[in-house]
Description:
Layout: H1 10-23, H2 25-61, E1 68-71, H3 84-88, H4 95-104, E2 108-118, E3 122-124, E4 127-128, E5 133-137, H5 141-145, E6 149-152, H6 157-161, E7 166-169, H7 171-177, E8 187-190, E9 193-201, E10 206-207, E11 210-211, E12 215-219, H8 220-226, E13 238-243, H9 249-263, E14 275-278, H10 279-322, H11 324-332, H12 337-373, H13 382-408, H14 412-417
Parallel strand pairs: 5-12, 7-9
Antiparallel strand pairs: 1-13, 1-14, 2-5, 2-13, 3-4, 3-8, 6-9, 7-12, 8-9, 10-11
Helix pairs in contact: 1-12, 2-10, 2-12, 2-13, 4-9, 10-12, 10-13, 12-13
Amino acid sequence: MRRPGFRVSWGANIAFAFTAMAAHRLRTFLSLLGVTAGVATVIMEVSLVVGFNHAVTASFTTFGTYLVQFQKFEPRFGGAGGSFEEQRNRRDLTVEDAMALKRLSNLAAAVSQERWLWGPEVKAGREEADSPSIVGTNTDYSVANTHFVQDGRFITDADVAHAARVCVIGADVASALFPHRDPIDQELTVAGLPHRVIGLFEKKGAVFGRSNDNLVALPISAFDNQFPWFKTDDDSLYIATVPKRPEDYYALIEEETAILRTRRGLRSNQPNDFAVRTSIGAIENFEQITAKVEAASLVVAGIALLVGGVGVMNIMLVNVTQRTREIGIRKALGATRRDIATQFLVEAVTLTSVGGAFGIAFGLSAAVAAGPMLDFEAATPLWSVLLGFLVSTTVGLVFGMWPAIRASRQDPIEALRYE
Length: 419
């Protein structure tokens, strides 16, 4: 029969658990390692994957969330289509293709033909820009890429028609070449040829260490005159388009794809001989890749938690053996099997919860430290922290159950005789 007032509160059981942990520090430390490592892996992996996805999303939407770009080769990640050899043998996209899209599409707000060249010398007097990107484009570039001019003006149809040697520069180029003066109407040279600065782009910032402000835009006709060899290179022309309304995004892809297929004489049973790259599609492809990485990391974390759980169970079984006489005394004083089981189960859960708390702290610290080295900022959603703590608690419940049951089944007489 239970004696009045014998029941031990949950608070007392938790306090006793901490006392037992403090009395056996080395044993506690060893049993916490697995749980701490597993939870830390979950927190760090989720933080880095979420942060990476945010950085990728920012990267692909820097030049337009609803960007639809046509190019010769399939996107590097997640692209559908034939082999590289088949793609290399495709016909190049042309300025005439872009003009046809501009003329025939009812849904496009802008169609920007673009040739990109990286690293030519850009100078103004003794000052030199740090290997900027050069883009030859038309008047629709700003709208198609959501990259607008903050000072001066952008390229006009007249500039394109007359192959005018004018340019619009990014903030990094302006700072490098004209640090103490207004760049508008100043002269710079691109690969030795002079161009007049007519506009300054608004700042876009950097993604993955690459600045979007280290840019010089030229009329595409002037670009082709200066770099005629570039037109014959594989995949030299990109056609960037955006819909008039966001809800027309997928319809625009279908409409423009149909226009290009008709221009290129493709039959209904023939695949596209060009690639379609979209910001949303690129983001989805990266999320699929990171989801696989996340799944693999969770498997590793699960193994660590399993090892940690087995360690906790072994430690608790040792505790049961060492405290056999204590169990006998408690039963002699009126403790029930439930009381004994609860005491040891609370101790196991407390042990793994502490391990989970350490794992959360370590995982957060590691993710924050790793973010700058990987050139993006880690992001830890609240659900991952709650999940980490829940998992650690569950490990204590599952792996502490058998030791608790074993302790509760001790015969009080035999337990009192135990030495």
